[in-house]
């Protein structure tokens, strides 16, 4: 099985990221990626680029171009043997000339429309030349060897172009769009040019009031967090009892402060915190070097009991990042919070979650039963978990902070982190998966699987009916709705919660 972490890709875990349970998988952890021994599949090597490229593959009228390439392939294989034959000088010259003409035409042709007039004559001429070559007494092993050499070169060239395209795709999904960067910079500059009144001072009593409904979002993305908040507020009948705590890094802190001073979300209170503030960083011994939101992983598995044991299946999951384990210390006065990822939108009232009996558990989470603990055995360790248990995922989680403190989940996480982290930046990111999963072992309450439909950032097969019936949608995966590479069919649900008429959005050409 291969696993890749993403923040944004699920690709060979560059932080971006159903088997039968009877057979363990081999695994190696590398920079947040875990590769479980099996034949390399497209997604294992190139991540969600494979899904995107398949969906965006253009139908081309190139049957004749392909015919030219096939003929050139065969002619090149025969030519060295023909050139060595006694008495075949004319055929050798004819074949060489035809090869050169084919190469010249193919250098400028991608589709049939690019081919010169009367190209059919060239095809027929080459066909006759190849037929003559096949009629000669040549050493078959030499032709076969040449064919294999050309095949290897062709495969290498194809793989090179695939890698190049996948790199450009990954660049597109991992790089902040120019418009969003502009928005963040404009807001930051404006904050220091003309600081807004500190609205949070008048709301301080709300921020620590356990009788209110508290939502926590870890984010670096101003627009994404705004959409998450707006969707949650619009879907609620009582926004006055809602408090949103945004935890971000120092780079985006002032931009967010100004954004929420300028924009209002009905009667909800917004609290922006810089998690890299020294007062917060020293809350415990996590040794957190920087802000860490939810982490996304790409996990590829193979089923040894199926008919095609080498065929890989790839899934994408989100999990709590290091920063999440500061929750009980940051919010010491709160008893319960709902944690939302910034790629989530809420379509229906969440009031029922606040009254949900978690049966003494800490983390109310949606289970992801396409992957089970047993499939991560060599990553999580043996005999430390129920192998048949489903993975839980982040996105929308109801957290009992009192039970968290009682069971010292943060302390458990710290010990697990020491076990899986060897001191390198690579394992610092990849350790998130096993440490987060095991920290909540036996402390997770399964929420209704219909509560959140996930995968809107990579899965093209989700039906509109499922989307409309779901309480919340999660755009986990690389194709986020704020990117040009987002899936248009799903992005429309996200875009309807964008703030309208915001001056800086218009100035930065943020598309609505």
From TrEMBL:
Keywords, alphabetical: Cell wall biogenesis/degradation, Coiled coil, Glycosyltransferase, Golgi apparatus, Transferase
GO cellular component term of the entry, any: Golgi membrane
Compartment list: Golgi apparatus membrane
DNA-binding recorded as keyword: no
Chain segments annotated as transmembrane: none
Enzyme class: transferase
The protein's annotated pathway: Glycan metabolism; pectin biosynthesis
EC number from the UniProt entry: 2.4.1.-
Coiled coil regions in record: 85-112
Ranges of biased composition (kind: Polar residues): 1-20
CDD domains: GT8_like_1 (cd06429)
Topological relation to the membrane, as annotated: Single-pass type II membrane protein
Region (Disordered): 1-24
Transferase recorded as keyword: yes
InterPro entries in the cross-refs: GAUT, Glyco_trans_8, Nucleotide-diphossugar_trans
GO BP, one annotated term: cell wall organization
GO molecular function, a single term: polygalacturonate 4-alpha-galacturonosyltransferase activity
Family: Belongs to the glycosyltransferase 8 family.
PANTHER family from the UniProt entry: GALACTURONOSYLTRANSFERASE 4-RELATED, GALACTURONOSYLTRANSFERASE 7-RELATED
Name of this chain's protein: Hexosyltransferase
Naturally occurring in which organism (per UniProt): Platanthera zijinensis
Organism placement in taxonomy: Eukaryota, Viridiplantae, Streptophyta, Embryophyta, Tracheophyta
Protein's gene: GAUT7
